[in-house]
Amino acid sequence: MKKVLLIILAGMFAFGTAQAQPSFTIGLGLNKGVFAAEGREDNFDESGSLASQTVEYGAFEDTYASIYVEMGNEVGSIGLAYQGDVSTPTNVNERGAGPSDDSDPTSKVSASFDDVITVYGLVNLPMNLYLKAGIVQGDIGVNETQKSGNTYADQDLEGYVIGFGYQHEADAANVRIELLGHTYDDVTANNGVATTGNHNKITISDMIGANAQISVNRSF
Asked: May I ask the CATH architecture of the domain 2-91+107-219?
């Protein structure tokens, strides 16, 4: 699917450049995003059988910066955007049995979306409006302090974005306001323990998001 989208975007730009002289754009943006997903934790006993399962749905918001470069013409553009890190809140589990003092460790976990890059196509519409769609790739950093001492490996982030925006053109710089929706592939991670050694697995599904961006750019 992602390869097909890239072919479509490249084809659109190739057709456009045959009709007009390309230009280059660089911009800086400020984003306000809201993200949500369902998380499932599967806990297995020493026989490898599923002992318990916990399912939770959560959402959070964050503010982050972004930078983008584009090559295009009056038909549309092909762009590459890099966004600042986005971090989830830290989830803290209840203390286990035993004295509740500072020596009794807790389990804490959070995630960060790092080095997120979006490759997108932008199609210009009348009245300075535009449509935008692309693919997203990045890293999911899992930050944990587990009572068991086990850790979860970092994972890849892959997904899609689609939305629309408006560009106000001026001599000094252009201003864009846009709204984008996000959807991401499911992610699965485990604690690195064999199925006969209290194996735990976490699956994050139905990851979605939306963000509003205001940016300033300059074309050359």
From this structure: Beta Barrel (2.40)
**pLDDT of 145-195, one tens digit each?**
665 556 778 889 999 999 999 999 998 899 999 999 999 999 988 877 776
- 159 and 116 Cβ atoms separated by less than 8 Å: no
Question: What Å distances lie between residue 73 and 6, 19, 133, 219, CA to CA?
Answer: 18, 9, 17, 10
How far is it, in rounded angstroms, from Cα 188 to Cα 69? 32
DSSP 147-172: TT------EEEEEEEEEEEEEE--SS
Amino acid letter at 50?
L
Q: How far apart are CA 138 and CA 114, in angstroms?
A: 6
Domain limits, the chain:
2-91+107-219
Contact 68, 80 (CB under 8 A): yes
